[in-house]
Task: inverse folding
C-alpha cells in the first residue's frame, strides 16, 4: 500500500478512536437528551391536572398521597429509557430548581414548573441508568430530594442507585414535610451495610437528639463497616437549639411520631431492649427527663453534658467507646 495512503488511513483511525475514547469523547453523557413532555411517566401525567386545582396546603396533601401511591417505585420514574425527574417544594419558597446530573457534566438543566405550584419536573432519555448520579439545586444550595432519600454521605445531596450488596453504610435524608406523620421534622438516617440485601434482618434503633451537622454518621458507619459494633439503624433529630422542644412536645415527637414512623418504614426492631435514646450536650437534661418518665419505653439511654459536647472530637471519641460497649460484636 502506498505510504501516503497508509498514513491517511492511520489518521482516520486515530480520529475515530479519539472521538470515542479521548477528550471530548462521545459517551453516554452525550447520548442522554431531554424529551418532550409527552414522554413523561404516566403516573405523573395522571396527577398533574389534579395538582393544578389545589391550594398550596391541599397540594402538599395530594403530593404526600401520591408519594404513598408510588410505594417502592424509585424516582426518577423510568419508562423504557425515559427517566422522569420530579421535585416538590414543600416550603413553597422556590421559583427555580435545576438538575445537575452525571449525564450533563458542568451544566445545570432547569426543571419545568407546574404553574405556580411547588412541583418541578423534566424528562430525559438516559440509556445507562446505573451510571446516573444527580442532585437538585436552587441557587448555590443543594436540595434534599423528598421522593428519594438515598444520598452519599456529605452535604451535597448527590443521589444515586445504591448497590444492594454494598458493604458500606448509607445515609438517607428524609424531608419531614413529605411525610404526614412526621409533622414537618426533617430526619437524617444511617442504614447499616448490606441493609438492602439482608431483607430478613431487623436492627436496633438509635435515636440521636441534639447532635449538629452530618458528621455524626461517619464514626458509626466506620465501626459497622469494620465489624467492631453490631449493625444498627440510627436517626438524628437536629432542630435549631432555640427551637428545640421539651416536655410533652418532645415526648410526642419522639414517642408518638418518630419511633413508630421509623419502625413502619425501616426494619427497626420493636424490642424495647433494642431502642437507644441519645441526648447530646444542651439536650441531655430534656432527654433525661423524658426517659425517666417512660423507663419501659426508653430502656437504653446515653446523655452527654454540654461541656463534653463542645470538644471538636467529642462525638468521635465518646461514640467509639460507648457503642463498642452498648453494641459489642460477639465473635463465634
Result:
Amino acid at each position: 500500500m502506498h505510504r501516503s495512503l497508509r498514513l491517511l488511513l492511520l489518521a482516520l483511525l486515530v480520529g475515530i478512536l479519539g472521538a470515542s475514547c479521548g477528550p471530548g469523547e462521545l459517551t453516554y453523557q452525550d447520548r442522554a437528551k431531554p424529551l418532550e413532555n409527552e414522554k413523561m411517566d404516566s403516573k405523573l401525567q395522571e396527577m398533574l391536572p389534579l395538582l393544578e386545582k389545589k391550594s398550596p396546603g391541599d397540594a402538599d396533601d395530594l403530593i404526600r398521597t401520591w408519594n404513598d401511591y408510588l410505594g417502592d417505585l424509585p424516582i426518577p420514574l423510568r419508562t423504557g429509557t425515559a427517566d422522569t425527574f420530579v421535585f416538590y417544594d414543600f416550603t413553597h419558597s422556590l421559583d427555580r430548581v435545576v438538575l445537575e446530573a452525571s449525564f450533563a457534566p458542568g451544566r445545570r438543566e432547569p426543571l419545568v414548573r407546574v404553574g405556580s405550584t411547588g412541583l418541578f419536573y423534566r424528562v430525559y432519555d438516559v440509556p445507562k441508568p446505573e451510571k446516573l448520579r444527580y442532585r437538585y439545586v436552587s441557587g448555590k444550595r443543594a436540595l434534599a430530594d423528598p421522593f428519594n432519600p438515598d444520598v452519599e454521605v456529605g452535604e451535597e445531596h448527590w443521589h444515586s442507585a445504591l448497590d444492594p450488596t454494598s458493604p458500606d453504610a448509607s445515609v438517607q435524608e428524609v424531608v419531614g414535610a413529605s411525610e404526614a406523620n412526621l409533622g414537618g421534622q426533617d430526619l437524617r438516617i444511617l442504614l447499616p451495610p448490606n441493609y438492602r440485601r439482608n431483607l430478613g434482618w431487623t436492627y436496633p434503633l438509635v435515636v440521636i437528639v441534639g447532635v449538629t451537622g452530618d458528621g455524626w454518621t461517619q464514626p458509626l458507619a466506620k465501626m459497622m463497616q469494620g465489624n467492631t459494633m453490631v449493625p444498627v439503624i440510627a436517626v438524628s433529630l437536629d432542630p435549631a437549639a432555640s427551637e428545640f422542644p421539651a416536655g410533652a412536645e418532645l415526648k410526642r415527637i419522639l414517642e408518638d411520631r418518630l419511633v413508630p414512623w421509623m419502625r413502619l418504614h425501616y426494619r427497626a426492631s420493636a424490642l424495647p431492649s433494642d431502642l437507644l435514646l441519645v441526648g447530646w450536650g444542651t439536650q441531655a437534661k430534656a432527654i433525661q427527663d423524658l426517659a425517666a418518665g417512660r423507663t419501659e419505653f426508653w430502656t437504653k439511654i446515653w446523655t452527654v453534658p454540654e461541656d463534653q459536647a463542645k470538644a471538636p472530637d467529642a462525638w468521635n471519641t465518646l461514640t467509639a467507646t460507648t457503642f463498642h460497649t452498648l453494641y459489642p460484636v460477639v465473635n463465634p
Notes: DSSP finds nine helices and 17 strands in the chain. Residues 192 and 278 are 18 Å apart (CA to CA). The domain at 165-332 is CATH 3.40.50.1820 (Rossmann fold).
